[in-house]
Backbone:
């Protein structure tokens, strides 16, 4: 008992240490598998001398997003299917990552994708070593060229021997880019300039994403691209070999990327001098790269995993044996290389005995051991959570229903990630509800005696807490739309919106349940550690809470100055909630506002000037305790000066402004060292930051950041006044509010920088965006400030990132000065990281999950680091005084 008590005491006293220890198991085994790129063997096997090849050239034609069923439909694509009378047809299976870049990479290089490649989809580079395209480019017999989207360019742009022409005109171009592709390829063939070509038509994929595969728009696009391929085939010389294929298929909803069977099923039509007409075969997408080595009499790269489908070739048995032995020798050397890396020896593998069953068809993606690690990690999370609660055995048995529900939810959450191939939207919808509940429950501040007679609020309360109703709603939706997924995802979204409204206007602080001490912590733990938690959803209840606060201040006849922080935060939160839905509107309007924040036209200058003056007035009024009118004028002049510098686009003026910025930072530090409580330190810091932000991120970003920095602390003071009990570990709400509030503010800020996507329409109805956090939309224009002609890469990174880091630090400091202890927030971010890492083992074959988990981990780490700095500085300033909430007491007392 004494050892058990000591363990419980340590768990309560060092929760952050326990969290990081729980990360060790998945971090040491599963994380490297997901994020590290494996080595590949080098070398080539010479082409067999006694095999004669009659092909004189080669063309690869790739149709983006055309699955096998549509590809081989003679009504949709009559010309291509008529061509099958002179060709072989191979049913192709792709790898588990069915993104355009990953599929084309395997098709052309023959190298299996690493799990991390799903994250690199938009900038996937060559895996290294030689492949048939590089060998052909180095061979004096061939001239190699490629035309199409950026995908092929990313793979081969650094190789000077290959000419690449990019005809990709954006994701909303459905026809012109493909027409340009046809014209470029036609010119090359007619001029006999190149004899090894790759031609990529990307339009079908764009149409499928926009309207779905079952739409008339998609059918019209297939007929159009079928005609374009037909025109190309007519001018390809008869003695050339041709492969017509697709990179991946698509679901009926127009999605791909994960390992759904329909997205992995494509076809290849192969023609050439030694191809058996109307023959059929089965193969892998990497086999197409192996076929190229044969067609062009090239050495076989050892790193290439493909197997040549010899049953479609018209060779003698003797030649087929030579070709297969050549193919097998590369496979043998490659497998030996990988076995040696793993420290294993396969006694059955032999150079002399061909046995393709000994060669894995895919790279190692989802491994059973990673799933076991995830399960063990969650068992440990549950174990330490129960220890931290300090419950006796009698209390656990008394609340057995609650703990059965706890472990059932853990199982459900794990299964939601394990079964992503059946539904990618369901875990995102669950993650959205987790964020909504965390914010709505913890930050809602209406007391029981306020508006308690409102029939609407009472009715809303009854609806939200009626379990039978929330069983009937998904059942009804499922029957209505004939889809369980539609019912579940739709119900989760409806509940999220209704709970958000309730959190802003409903009655909180209800107690009396026998589970009231334990249940909040269990729900908080589950929500915080849910790997697919959706950050943007946190803004929905926050918006409703701000509306409720504003309504309350109106009833209380508060002054305009008192209402100003609420009005300011409400305004920018409104923008963040309603104008970020790129896949619904076609644009992320907040991102458009960020782009418009540069003074490159008269209208932009006028709009930017108004925004900057407004932000100066609001910031000075809300933040400065004295002389706020005078400081408003000075601050406005300062910002307009920065706008003029930005408009001039002169390196010399940039440098002058940056020197003033540096001087402001140094002055702020000097004042802070002298007196850390002096408000002038923060005022100088904010003034310098605003100028730097204005130069690098533009007027809108400066406007939004200033309002958040100067008003968020006021909002916390208003919210925290509703907590009329002392902060203790057995009173969860104030502690969780401290953990959640800085998180919501940070999400709001990052959304207003245009870096967060909200909702989309999908088969299941209204769904979370698959790439919620979108660092790919960071605008690099600000990196040119101070070096307009040719900035150094590191200078650009510094100029873009440094104001973000400084903003985050000031944000944490201001919130802390408003009376919020950052330690619960630090624990919260650590739990987010733990939750993401704990399910990382499910992610290898789901690229969008890799993306989501990776960026959640990155940004949680970003916040944790800055919050720890500010919290640590406060502890140092306190010189031993208590500045950390005591978590060493149990939740429930005996």
Residues:
């Amino acid at each position: 008992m004494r050892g058990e008590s000591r363990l419980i005491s340590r768990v309560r006293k060092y929760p952050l240490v326990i969290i990081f220890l729980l990360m060790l198991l998945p971090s040491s085994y599963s994380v490297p598998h997901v994020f590290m790129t494996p080595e590949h063997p080098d070398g080539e096997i010479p082409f067999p001398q006694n095999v004669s090849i009659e092909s004189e050239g080669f063309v690869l034609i790739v149709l983006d997003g055309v699955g096998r069923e549509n590809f081989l439909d003679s009504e949709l694509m009559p010309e291509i299917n008529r061509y099958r009378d002179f060709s072989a047809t191979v049913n192709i299976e792709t790898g588990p990552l069915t993104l355009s870049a990953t599929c084309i990479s395997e098709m052309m290089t023959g190298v299996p994708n690493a799990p991390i490649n799903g994250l690199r989809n938009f900038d996937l580079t060559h895996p290294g070593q030689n492949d048939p395209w590089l060998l052909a480019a180095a061979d004096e017999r061939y001239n190699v060229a490629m035309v199409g989207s950026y995908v092929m360019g990313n793979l081969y742009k650094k190789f000077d021997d290959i000419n690449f022409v990019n005809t990709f005109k954006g994701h909303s171009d459905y026809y012109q880019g493909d027409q340009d592709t046809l014209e470029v390829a036609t010119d090359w063939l007619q001029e006999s300039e190149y004899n090894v070509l790759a031609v990529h038509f990307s339009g079908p994929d764009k149409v499928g994403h926009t309207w779905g595969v079952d739409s008339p728009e998609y059918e019209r696009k297939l007929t159009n691209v079928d005609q374009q391929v037909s025109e190309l085939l007519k001018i390809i010389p008869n003695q050339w070999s041709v492969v017509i294929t697709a990179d991946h298929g698509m679901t009926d909803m127009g999605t791909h990327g994960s390992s759904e069977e329909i997205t992995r099923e494509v076809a290849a039509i192969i023609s050439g001098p030694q191809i058996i007409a109307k023959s059929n075969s089965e193969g892998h997408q990497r086999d197409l790269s192996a076929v190229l080595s044969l067609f062009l009499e090239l050495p076989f790269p050892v790193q290439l995993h493909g197997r040549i489908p010899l049953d479609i070739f018209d060779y003698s048995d003797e030649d087929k044996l030579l070709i297969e032995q050549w193919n097998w020798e590369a496979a043998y050397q490659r497998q030996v290389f990988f076995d040696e890396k793993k420290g294993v020896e396969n006694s059955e593998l032999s150079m002399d005995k061909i046995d393709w069953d000994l060669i894995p068809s895919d790279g190692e993606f989802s491994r059973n051991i990673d799933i076991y690690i995830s399960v063990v990690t969650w068992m440990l999370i549950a174990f330490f959570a129960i220890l931290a609660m300090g419950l006796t055995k009698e209390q656990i048995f008394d609340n057995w229903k609650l703990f059965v529900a706890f472990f059932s939810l853990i199982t459900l959450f794990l299964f939601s990630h394990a079964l992503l191939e059946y539904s990618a939207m369901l875990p995102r919808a669950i993650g959205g509800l987790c964020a909504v509940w965390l914010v709505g429950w913890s930050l809602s501040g209406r007391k029981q005696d306020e508006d308690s007679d409102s029939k609407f609020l009472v009715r809303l309360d009854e609806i939200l807490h009626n379990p039978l109703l929330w069983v009937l709603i998904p059942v009804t939706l499922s029957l209505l739309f004939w889809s369980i997924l539609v019912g579940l995802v739709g119900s989760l979204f409806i509940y999220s919106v209704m709970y958000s409204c309730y959190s802003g206007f409903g009655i909180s602080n209800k107690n009396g349940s026998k589970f009231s001490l334990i249940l909040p912590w269990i729900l908080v733990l589950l929500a915080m550690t849910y790997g697919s938690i959706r950050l943007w959803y946190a803004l929905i209840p926050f918006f409703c809470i701000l509306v409720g606060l504003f309504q309350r201040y109106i009833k209380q006849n508060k002054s305009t100055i008192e209402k100003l922080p609420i009005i300011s935060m409400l305004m920018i939160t409104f923008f963040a909630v309603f104008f970020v839905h790129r896949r619904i509107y076609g644009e992320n309007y907040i991102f458009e506002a960020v782009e418009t924040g540069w003074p490159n036209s008269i209208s932009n200058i006028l709009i930017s000037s108004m925004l900057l003056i407004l932000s100066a007035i609001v910031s000075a009024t809300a933040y400065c305790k004295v002389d706020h009118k005078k400081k408003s004028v000075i601050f406005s002049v300062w910002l307009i000066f920065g706008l003029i510098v930005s408009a001039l686009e002169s390196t010399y003026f940039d440098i002058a402004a940056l020197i003033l910025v540096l001087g402001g930072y140094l002055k702020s530090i000097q004042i802070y060292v002298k007196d850390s409580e002096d408000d002038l330190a923060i005022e100088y810091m904010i003034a310098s930051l605003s100028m730097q932000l204005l130069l690098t991120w533009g007027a809108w970003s400066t406007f939004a950041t200033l309002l958040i920095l100067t008003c968020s602390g006021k909002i916390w003071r208003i919210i925290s006044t509703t907590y009329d009990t002392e902060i203790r570990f057995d009173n969860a709400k104030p502690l969780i509010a401290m953990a959640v509030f800085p998180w919501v503010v940070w999400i709001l800020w990052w959304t207003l920088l245009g870096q967060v996507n909200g909702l989309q329409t999908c088969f299941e109805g209204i769904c979370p965006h698959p790439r919620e956090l979108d660092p790919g939309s960071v605008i690099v224009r600000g990196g040119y400030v101070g070096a307009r002609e040719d900035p150094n890469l590191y200078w650009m990174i510094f100029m873009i990132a440094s104001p973000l880091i400084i903003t985050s630090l000031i944000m944490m400091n201001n919130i802390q000065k408003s009376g919020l202890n950052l330690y619960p927030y630090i624990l919260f971010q650590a739990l987010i990281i733990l939750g993401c890492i704990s399910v990382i083992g499910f992610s290898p074959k789901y690229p969008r999950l890799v993306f989501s988990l990776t960026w959640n981990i990155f940004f949680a780490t970003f916040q944790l680091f800055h919050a720890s700095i500010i919290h640590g500085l406060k502890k140092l300033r306190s010189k031993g005084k208590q500045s950390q909430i005591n978590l060493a007491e149990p939740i429930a007392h005996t």
About this structure: The CA atoms of residues 207 and 270 lie 26 Å apart. The two ends are 16 Å apart (CA to CA).
